[in-house]
Amino acid sequence: VQLVESGGGLVQAGGSLRLSCAASGDTFRIKAMGWYRQAPGKQRELVADFTSGGGSTNYADSVKGRFTISRDNAENTMYLQMNSLKPEDTAVYYCNAVGVAGGTRVDYWGQGTQVTVSS
Q1: Are strands 113-118 and 9-12 parallel, antiparallel or unpaired?
Q2: Residue partners of 69: CB distance under 8 A and separation at least 6
Q3: Maximum Cα–Cα distance for the chain, whole Å?
Q4: Which of 4, 35, 64, 65 is the most buried (most CB within 10 A)?
């Protein structure tokens, strides 16, 4: 499975960005997908994801009401609409896919896309 993110950039506080994650390869292995972010000097953290089976979504408290995760199954693409951005949202955003191979969980990661929010 290969994941490619796009859509990051520099935006002023209060602005919006839309991230995309295109999946390719053995996408049938994917059981769940989500977005993570990592700010300088901090651990990578979950931003939003689809629960296993895709029946519902989960958001970090810090982004609830501002970010929306969505996907287009036909295009094997996941999105993260980010509104009302804050300087503390500045981070590298990563697309994650969870699969199973040989009964073992496998995590796939994209290369990351930088989001910078200026005050």
Answers
A1: parallel
A2: 34, 35, 48, 49, 50, 57, 59, 78, 79, 80, 81
A3: 47
A4: 35
Mean pLDDT by 10 residues, the chain (119 residues): 96 98 92 95 97 82 98 94 98 95 91 97
Structure token pair of residue 74: 């036909």
**Angstrom distance (rounded) from CA 32 to CA 6:** 19
Helices (H) and strands (E) in the chain, counts: 0, 11
Q: Which position has the token pair 């896309």?
A: 113
Q: Which two tokens stand for residue 91?
A: 């981070």
pLDDT of residue 47: 98
Q: Tell me how far CA of residue 39 lies from CA of 42, 90, 96, 111, in angstroms.
A: 5, 6, 16, 15
Cβ pair 110, 117 in contact under 8 A: no
Q: What pairing do the DSSP bridges indicate for beta strands 91-101 and 77-82? A: unpaired
Local structure of 62: helix, strand or coil: coil
